[in-house]
Amino acid sequence: MTNIISSRTVQMVRLDRALEYAVIQGWDDLMPESTSGLIHLEYQTGADGSLDFLTILASTIRGHWSLICELWIRPLWSHATGLSFSNGYHSEAFACTLKSVIEHESSFTKLPNPHGLIQIYPPTPEKRSEAKSWRAAAFDDQVSSPKKMDVAA
C-alpha cells in the first residue's frame, strides 16, 4: 500500500518520493517526444535537512544529459531563488506541482542524504495512477489551481 500525506491522514511519505511523483505527473511535458529515457533529480539539503536546491536532467540517449530545470530554494553561491527551465523545456503543470511540494516540505519526512540522486524511469500506467492518487490526496486536489511559481524560461 502506498503511504500518502494529507490533512486527513497521519501517514507520511518521504520528500524524495513526493519529488518522484511530481516528475511522474509532469513526465509527458518533460519528456514529450520520448517513450524511453531517464530523468535524474539531483538535490542538496542544508544542515537542517531542508532542501536547498534541485537539478533535473533528462537523458534519451545513453550518456547524454540535458538540463530540464533548476530550483534554488535558498540563495546559494551566485544563484537566485526560484525555478528556471533550460534547453527548451517548460511545464507550467510541473512547476505548480513542484511548488506545492516545496511549500509543504515540512509535511514530508526528510530526505535520506544531504546530497542525493533520484533516478526516474518512464512511468508505467500503475506508477502514473499511483502519482495521480498521491497528488489528489496530498493536496486535496488544490494543485490544479495553485499560485504560480516564479519561473524563468
Write a short abstract of this structure.
The protein is an alpha+beta fold and 153 residues long. The chain has helices at 15-25, 27-30, 92-103, 125-139; strands at residues 38-45, 51-61, 64-72, 82-85, 115-120, 151-152.
The number of distinct β-strands equals 6
Mean pLDDT: 81
Give the overall form.
globular
Instruction: Estimate the strand proportion.
Output: 25-35%
Poorly predicted regions: 1-11, 141-153
Describe this structure in words.
The chain is of the alpha+beta class and 153 residues long. The protein has one domain. It is 27% helix and 26% strand. The chain contains 4 helices and 6 strands; from the N terminus they run ααββββαβαβ. It has helices at residues 15-25, 27-30, 92-103, 125-139; strands at residues 38-45, 51-61, 64-72, 82-85, 115-120, 151-152. Strands 5-1-2-3-4-6 form a 6-stranded mixed sheet, with helices on one face. The relative contact order is 0.25. Mean pLDDT is 81; it is low at 1-11 and 141-153.
Key features?
153 residues, alpha+beta, globular, disordered N terminus, disordered C terminus
